Amino acid sequence: MKNPFYYIDIEQEAQKFWEDNKCFETVEDINKEKFYCLCMFPYPSGNLHIGHVRNYTIGDVISRLQRMLGKNVLNPIGWDAFGMPAENAAKKNIISPKKWTSANIFYMRKQLKKLGFSYNWGREITTCNFKYFRWEQWFFIKLIDHGLIYKTNASVNWDPVDNTILANEQVIKGIGWRSGAKVERIKIPIWFLKITDYAEELLKGLENLDWPESVKKMQINWIGKSKGIEIYFKVLASVPNFLSNLKVFTKRPDTLFGVTYIILAPDHPLVELAAQNNKKLMNFCKTFRIGGNSSVELLNKEKISLYIGYKVLHPITNEYLPIYVSNFLIMEYGTGAVMGVPAHYQIDWELAYKYGLPIKPVISDKNGILPEISKKAYTKYGFIINSGIFDKLNFFEAFDYINKYIKQIKCGVIKNHFRLRDWGISRQRYWGTPIPIKYGPKGETVPLTDKELPVCLPTELSFNSKLDNFNLKKIPSFYELGNGWVRDTETFDTFIESSWYYARFCSYNNKKSILDARVNYWLPVDMYIGGIEHAILHLLYARFFHKLMRDFGFLECDEPFKKLITQGMVITPTYYRKIHGKKEWFSPLDIKLNKDKNTGQIIATLIKDGGSVISSGIEKMSKSKNNGVDPKTIIDKFGADTLRLFIMFSAPTEQSLIWSETGIKGAYRFLKRLWNLVHIHISKYFSKNNKIKISSLTPSQFILYRKTQKTIKKATEDMIFRHTFNTVIAKVMELTNLVSRFLDYSILGLSVIREALKSIILIMSPIVPHITHVLWKKLGYEHPVIDANWPKFNKQCLLEKLITVVVQINGKFRKILKFPINYGPKKLAIGILSSKHINCYLIGKLINKIIIVPEKIINIVVKK
């Protein structure tokens, strides 16, 4: 009886069963251990790409696996639906961002369902839905009431094309990352969230997280804790009181006597004051405001400084020190002021050399020898010199002594400084959560009341390419509230939405409060999965938001994500031709690879015309290189299980995955082979299951049975504890090959086959759930495989010691075989004679006798 492998029918049958039986709906159960698995939710761009599929497949495999371990699993999905791309699409396609986003969600939801992911769709969240964002508006007001949000003028990176603020990381070589426009530095009023109040806790909390060390290190560097001394330098000019003492932070108080000038950031208040009557200085600051200001760009650009016309008094030496402004400092880091110590900081040395400023060495090497500083700064630790009473102290001694002295003369304090700045959360966009604030005719700033929430975006906009259509001030029905009162027309940074969605999944249908008691059952998330590109901002903001919600009593645990997996990128070959001086990129699916008969080299040609193309190497999938692969194409041609299997087999989760159609075809062949193997044994040879006793097994039966138990053990260790799925799949393939070669169709032999097939299906069911759903039923089990338990291996079998026996025929070596140590001579002889490796030499021959040297050699004496 033929049983063709129709993957479309198989997948439809499995998915219908899951949906009809509501297999993935989850409720809280205090009698069951919970497992909350979450993949970073997608932005609804319109199409899933293979990177999405890899992320969600990993999460689904882990969720299904944990379910088999008897846990109550939550595996939700939602949509990070606000953001600039929707506005840009609205302008381009003349459609409202809401309609564009809704259409994309509808299409992407269908794509996700075709992949068979075990999502609890009843908990689906869409962040642009007022039922979701009303609670962050409500929380925003609570945070204002508790002094954790404030509004102030701040220097920002301004994109004049997108008309919005950019983070430093979104400015590349002075250009906006999305629009390509030259970025400007301007000052505008911004709402800030006091993340700096939690800097120390955010740093310490990393110690207890089971996260990749690389991610933790990135957060540590971003928070950037530095222990040092904040020193006050008196400004020798008539300035406002708040500028009369210049605060300068240093991690190296041992260099204090080597200060020969002070450097300020161009947007420091003292520089702005000095520039009011200094045109040259004003132009310098204007130049600084154009271009990138990321830490990397600031360090790489040419260092330029200018004397601002003011001096300060050194608090210990009483020397007059000039103040310079320089283009490599920004106010966001430290106090916007640093000591110029050219003898011991390389950047300071370069400026001093360039502008003829004094260079005063105050650190000797460890041998007390004055270092050479005519060509570069001496930046190592050593012993203090030229520093009066502090001479001969090392760095650690100097830190304590100078700190005490500074405190004694009241010109400084010991302080921890953080690189982390408060989080600017307001954006000049339409498609975002409106900020729930109104302004009065006298300049009053008043949060809205609960009854005035939610504030929803106006819908009476004619969406075309004109930016004015996105200006909420141009919509009187939204902006004007009467009697001179108006709304705030800015919207939240979209990182707000993604900073608490994981918690809302737990209380998804609560209409009365932001969260409820259910959150304490599910949180923290046991496994969080996403790209390493989110290592800093999203993960840091989510950790901060979690601590805010904890401190307001909304939840109990300290951290949102217990364990983190950062999956690698999906990369693929890229091909192009140069046409009229420009590169035209071709999809890898349109390329044929041939081997040159003469040189042996691989030649790439375009399938449609046979012409050669140039290989540009392997790169991350992207639209610009046309090397992306639409998952729908693969699913339609090979099935969802094939795509899932390829993704989990081709590389460890944390490493980059090289896309390969050959690999896809290999995964398809394996599934087809497994399908056929099960059907062969069902239709021809299958019998009822019998309990397997190790002592009753023949050597070949024992080998297959033992291989099955070893595979289960390997799967248990690697999938549950190490999350190395590719190694398990390789072992399952080995076991499948062994089953296909096993030709013992006795009752006990068939039981051993059944044990192997059953184990293969159970192990593979989280990875390829559709085919295993059907094959499990074919094996005769009444309950679905989705409700089956994870297989347990037979420890006794694995503890069974094996002996190695050299088999000879008429004294000539033929094979080395392994047998259980408890096999007696008779059973050993039967096992050897039944081995296909030996049997082939005995055809047509008469066995005279068998000579056994225990645990060493067996010699079979034969006659022709």
UniProtKB/TrEMBL annotation:
Domain of life where this protein originates: Bacteria
Residues annotated as binding ATP: K623
Reaction(s) the record says it catalyses: tRNA(Leu) + L-leucine + ATP = L-leucyl-tRNA(Leu) + AMP + diphosphate
Domain Methionyl/Leucyl tRNA synthetase: 38-171
Enzyme class: ligase
Domain Methionyl/Valyl/Leucyl/Isoleucyl-tRNA synthetase anticodon-binding stretches: 704-820
GO molecular function: aminoacyl-tRNA deacylase activity; ATP binding; leucine-tRNA ligase activity
Motif 'KMSKS' region: chain residues: 620-624
Database matches in Pfam families: Anticodon_1, tRNA-synt_1, tRNA-synt_1_2, tRNA-synt_1g
Start and end residues of each Aminoacyl-tRNA synthetase class Ia domain: 420-572, 619-655
Ligase is among the record's keywords: yes
This enzyme's EC code(s): 6.1.1.4
HAMAP family listed in its UniProt record: Leu_tRNA_synth_B
Sequence similarity: Belongs to the class-I aminoacyl-tRNA synthetase family.
Protein known as: Leucine--tRNA ligase
Gene that encodes it: leuS
